[in-house]
Write a structure and sequence with these properties.
Blueprint (H helix, E strand, L loop, with lengths): L3 H7 L6 H16 L5 H29 L19 H25 L4 H14 L13 H19 L5 H28 L1 H7 L4 H5 L1 H25 L11 H12 L8 H27 L1
């Protein structure tokens, strides 16, 4: 049986910046617009974290039963390592989805009931990334869905449940582009590392389809998109939004590592730096836009 510590490892805590960053960014925009509702921001964070952990366990389960994780370079996988039964990992995934659904229900009841449909799409996207008979993650669509759900939906949704101000939603969309680009960059770095094993296992990720050199260029381009989004957001909202530029500090060495041809375990550090970059972008926007309301 897996120990509690191994279950925590299986939840892949290093991916949690991708859950915190969109909520920080979306709440910062809501505060700038004068509409921050802190208890709703906290519920949005519960939804985001629960979905992130849920998709990690779902990915662990689905890849494990397919044998994709039998020869793995990255973090611990519970199913692939035989530390936990597939059924137990599947139950953990759906328990997380249940927590996300409960928090989302409260947000929908206090904002707009159609948000329930958005929440259902989020859960379906989380499961079918590697689950089901035709997972879209195996067809090279993972990055698209990450951008949509962990970028656009997460950031704009966080802002929307706090304020429906039109200017705020425009700003939230700009913020979502930056957050979504770095969330995609995390997945691109992960899939770049796994090109050899994914190709053998028949997992046709975008990295496998593009090949090694193009995937490295895509990673650098996504970081550049994040930088442009910060500049545009600062021009649209407040110069204080430029505090989000701090994300470049860990992102720049990550880009250098990727473009220098690092592979295998050497890319694990890139994953960590990219996650920190996304968190810093979200935190920078939050602090900057909240500060703008105080001056």
């Amino acid at each position: 049986m897996a120990t509690p510590g191994q279950w925590v490892q299986g939840a892949r805590p290093r991916t949690l910046p991708a859950a915190f960053a969109p909520v920080l960014a979306g709440t910062g925009v809501a505060a700038w617009a004068g509409g921050a509702v802190w208890w709703k921001a906290l519920l949005a964070l519960v939804v985001s974290v629960a979905l992130q952990v849920g998709v990690n366990y779902a990915n662990d389960y689905s890849d494990g039963i397919r044998g994709t994780d039998d020869d793995r370079v990255g973090p611990l996988r519970l199913t692939g390592s035989r530390l936990a039964s597939p059924a137990a990992v599947k139950r953990a995934a759906f328990a997380c989805f249940g927590v996300a659904a409960a928090a989302g229900l409260v947000l929908a009841a206090t904002t707009a009931w159609w948000l329930l449909a958005v929440g259902a799409l989020c859960v379906l996207a989380a499961w079918y990334y590697t689950g089901g008979s035709r997972p879209y993650g195996y067809a090279g669509l993972g990055e698209v869905m990450v951008f949509v759900f962990f970028g656009l939906v997460a950031v704009v949704g966080t802002t929307f449940v706090q304020t429906t101000d039109g200017d705020a939603l425009v700003a939230a969309t700009l913020a979502a582009v930056g957050i979504g680009a770095l969330a995609c960059a995390i997945l691109v770095a992960n899939n770049l590392r796994d090109i050899p094993t994914d190709a053998v296992a028949g997992k046709r990720t975008l990295a496998v389809r593009l090949g090694d050199p193009a995937t490295r260029r895509l990673y650098a381009a996504l970081v550049a998109v994040a930088a442009v989004s910060v500049a545009l957001l600062a021009a649209t909202t407040s110069p204080f939004a430029l505090l989000a530029s701090v994300f470049v500090l860990p992102a720049a060495p990550a880009v250098r590592t990727v473009m220098a041809g690092a592979s295998g375990p050497a890319l694990i550090a890139v994953l960590a730096r990219t996650g920190i970059s996304e968190l810093l972008l979200g935190l920078g926007l939050f602090v900057g836009l909240v500060l703008d309301t105080a001056v």
